[in-house]
Amino acid sequence: MLKEQQHYDYMPWRRRPKITWPGGARVAFWVAPNIEHYELYPPPNPRRPPWPRPLPDVTGYSWRDYGNRVGFWRMADVMAKHRVRGSVSLNVAVCDHYPEIIERCCELEWELFSHGTYNTRYFYGMTEDQQRAVIRENRETILRASGQSLDGWLTPAISNDEATQHILAEEGIKYTLDLLHDDQPTPIRTRSGKPLVSIPYSLEVNDVPLLVMRNTPPDRFAAICKAQFDQLYEEGAESGTVMCMPLHPFLIGQPHRIAALDEVLRHVTGHDKVWLATGREIAAHYTQHHLAAHQAWIQEGTP
Fold first, then answer.
1. Beta bridge pairs of residue 90
2. How many Å apart are CA 14 and CA 71, to the nearest integer?
3. Three-state DSSP state, 158
4. In sequence order, what are the beta bridge partners of 88?
5. What is the pLDDT of residue 4?
6. Its biological function (predicted)?
7. Which of 92, 119, 243, 273 is 20 to 30 A (C-alpha) from 154?
8. How far is the C-alpha of 255 from the C-alpha of 261, rounded, in Å?
9. 55-63: long-range contacts at Cβ-Cβ below 8 A with a sequence spacing of 24 or more?
10. Inter-CA distances, 235 with 17, 26, 71, 239, 289, Å
11. Phi then psi for 255, rounded to 5 degrees?
């Protein structure tokens, strides 16, 4: 965990250099399905037990396995119906355990980025060399399975430490989702000076905290997501904003919840001036068109 915040500078929301998106869009909207694989017998971690019950936690395992067997396919159909591409937060072991899922993601032209190898293997306590080895192995596996480059990163269970963002930049990762500090992309300070940007992820409109931790009914989940979009759409008239909708197929792909996703995507795609983007596209546009201006503004003291 961070001993002190060292990765980004304070940027007052109302005075920033303006961000513009392709086509004059107000909001860059992106969906991040977390396609995960949990081990029945994961290796022990001194900081966090992967399962709440004694091993083997068959109930917990099979609940999450529902996402890969059923929920993913139902969720992907709804997203395709609305022509919304996914940017997959991928436990890379899925490439070997469920190649049919990777095949479908590629058919739909979804981006794959890394969410570690398994969702039962955290970065807590890893050395820098161990973290670097995971990133490199994940890059090779995604390239082999899909032909895609690895551009984005979300550490498993957001278990990153003080070194992780620096290592990501040194390994050529272009954007991180480990930090939850903004509604626009922002520059990340790295010890090497190599570029790394943060693009907005969310624990506010994320189906795990809403549906599991807060027991939110599906209609309320849809209302919360639409309210998030409406505010960012309004503010995006002044400077482009980003809305990320993180999903987990074992939750949103349940029969009694899938209509909520359909309702949210219908609402979003019913607006003009919305950029239906991937994480990679948002990071690339920001880096090419706005990163230098934001860095210069920070250097000037955010006047």
1. 35, 114
2. 40
3. helix
4. 112
5. 63
6. Is involved in generating a small heat-stable compound (Nod), an acylated oligomer of N-acetylglucosamine, that stimulates mitosis in various plant protoplasts.
7. 273
8. 11
9. 63/250
10. 14, 8, 33, 7, 20
11. -55, -35
Q: How far apart are CA 63 and CA 233, in angstroms?
A: 35
Q: Report the distance separating Cα 109 and Cα 31, nearest Å.
A: 13
Yes or no: say if 185 and 280 are a contact pair by the CB < 8 Å rule.
no
Bridge partners (DSSP) listed for residue 28? 242, 275
DSSP label of 86 = B
Instruction: State the DSSP H helix or E strand holding residue 285, giving kind and residue range, or none if neither.
Output: helix 279-289
- The residues near 54 (Cβ < 8 Å, ≥ 6 apart) are none
Own/partner long-range contacts of 192-196 (Cβ < 8 Å, ≥24 apart): 192/166, 194/169, 194/170, 195/169, 195/287, 195/291, 196/165, 196/168, 196/169
Residues 146-201 pLDDT 10s:
999 999 999 999 999 999 999 999 999 999 999 999 999 999 999 999 999 999 99
Question: What residue type is assigned to position 289 of the chain?
Answer: H
- pLDDT tens-digit profile of 63-91? 999 999 999 999 999 999 999 999 999 99
Task: Write the single-letter amino acid at 172.
Answer: G
pLDDT, one tens digit per residue, over 238-276 is: 999 999 999 999 999 999 999 999 999 999 999 999 999
Structure tokens at 79: 């997203």
Amino acid at position 158, single letter: I
**In the numeric block, which tokens belong to residue 284?**
């690339």
In contact, 123 and 45? CB cutoff 8 Å: no
pTM above 0.90, yes or no: yes
Report cis status (omega within 30 of 0) of the bond before 56.
yes
